[in-house]
Amino acid sequence: MAYHMSFFITTEQIRNQTKTVTRRNGWWNLKPGTHIYACEKCQGLKKGEKVVILGQIRVASVSPTRLDKITQEDCDMEGFPHLSPSEFVALFCKTHKGVNPSSTVNRIEFEYI
What we know:
Layout: E1 3-6, H1 11-16, E2 21-24, E3 35-39, E4 53-66, H2 72-77, H3 85-95, E5 104-112
Parallel strand pairs: 1-3
Antiparallel strand pairs: 2-5, 3-4, 4-5
């Protein structure tokens, strides 16, 4: 089975391969070793739009974690070295419906293949 994961907010970081961690409100059954097509946008495509594949990644680790426990190192790995942990949390909450700073999210570390 081919999995596709959207990186609409971090397309540039995926293209530059400066992002090696992503947080998701979901993907709870994901396992290390899973191969995923990193896409610009996977859902909500308008008529005539096609999925743009940015590359392929392999999941290294998966762990549920509270959003507000993010470290500066993880902000860097998320592709946002210019954001502090609290700024990252604010951005994440703004761009993900139903998530608040104390929400448990899925931390997914990956490598490019």
